[in-house]
UniProtKB/TrEMBL annotation:
Pfam families per the UniProt record, alphabetical: BCD (PF15461)
Subcellular compartments: Cell membrane
Gene Ontology molecular function, alphabetical: beta-carotene 15,15'-dioxygenase activity
Alphabetized NCBIfam families for the sequence: blh_monoox
Cofactor: Fe(2+)
Family to which the UniProt record says this protein belongs: Belongs to the Brp/Blh beta-carotene diooxygenase family.
Protein name as it appears in the record: Probable beta-carotene 15,15'-dioxygenase
EC number: 1.13.11.63
Membrane topology term: Multi-pass membrane protein
Length: 297
């Protein structure tokens, strides 16, 4: 277990403790603030990362990438607008892969690529459904707001059971074929126990925010800093924060504008998730390429 993993466990339990002092509404507000700061920040250097694989980060290149990035975001928004249900399903699939890919990235030197991809997807789906299963009524309400479609809470439960079985089956096969992975997979199961406690004890948004920030965004920012600047020194981390600042401000402004043009009957959190669905595709693709490149280095 890395030093950061131990710290993440401590921060997670502290976050649960903090939430016991907050009323529901403040917990949601704090969750939204964390998502808008750390959560959005971890995607704010995507352009810089893309320009790293395309060339040596020339300004002209960055503008082309930015235009392409915005185009992908608009295309995803259009899909969401034309078919919110399909948009949401694809968003959950892409997010599941993206979360699983990062969480299981330590297996990339052990497992064949295709196997790891399917395994990562099954992990992410199981993780999302673990969260959803703990808060079915809230998930049904948000999904209804986004897609105008009422899902049956029972289906969330079946979804969890199915994805968990698939994940366990894959784990079993991995353990038999690659006994070397035993130690690190053991820790993943320990972390899953921590996530289950977090998701159960906190509200939907707070539970998601803890996982998203502590277990996904901060580790991702660390990997990205090493990829872009070559080390995780304090100097390079500050450089990462400085380089991402403008894109972060622009993204937060874009969410504000997006909210302004949405019907006023929508919850802010629904707007955030719709916006996320649009930025997830280019972000997940950039990180996919980054992790692939790291493997070949
Ligand atoms: C939590 C949650 C949802 C899904 C959120 C997802 C899928 C977030 C993905 C974020 C990503 C991938 C960020 C980028 O790194 C739903 C289905 C909207 C319903 C309500 C609660």
């Amino acid at each position: 277990m890395s030093k950061y993993d131990s710290l993440a466990i401590v921060i997670s339990f502290y976050s649960l403790w903090i939430s016991s002092y907050l009323s529901d509404i403040y917990e949601v507000i704090l969750g939204i603030i964390l998502i808008l700061t750390f959560g959005i920040y971890h995607g704010a250097n995507d352009i810089l990362i893309s320009s790293k694989f395309l060339s040596n980060g020339k300004a002209k290149n960055s503008i082309t990438i930015l235009v392409f990035y915005v185009f992908q975001v608009l295309l995803a928004l259009l899909l969401f607008y034309l078919s919110p249900l399909l948009g949401l399903l694809l968003f959950i699939l892409a997010s599941s892969y993206h979360f699983g890919e990062q969480q299981l990235s330590f297996l990339k030197t052990i497992l064949p690529e295709t196997y790891l991809r399917i395994y990562a997807l099954s992990y992410g789906l199981m993780l999302f459904f673990l969260l959803f299963m703990m808060h079915p009524a809230e998930v049904v309400a948000i999904v209804k707001q986004i897609t105008f479609f009422t899902i049956d809470a029972q289906h969330i439960y079946y979804g969890f059971v199915i994805f968990m079985c698939v994940f366990l089956l894959f784990t079993f096969l991995v353990l038999i074929a690659y006994p070397k992975s035993r130690g690190s997979l053991f820790y993943q199961f320990l972390f899953l126990g921590v996530y289950a406690i977090i998701f159960k004890v906190s509200s939907l948004i707070w539970g998601f925010a803890i996982y998203f920030i502590v277990w996904h965004s901060i580790p991702s920012m660390q990997l990205q800093t090493i990829f872009i600047y070559g080390s995780l020194s304090r100097f390079h981390f500050f450089k990462y924060v400085k380089d991402a600042f403008l894109y972060w401000i622009l993204s937060v402004l874009a969410i504000g504008l997006f909210y302004y043009f949405q019907s006023t009957s929508k919850f802010f959190i629904t707007v955030i998730f719709s916006f996320f669905s649009a930025i997830t595709y280019p972000h997940a693709f950039v990180i996919f390429k980054m992790l692939q490149q790291k493997k070949t280095e």
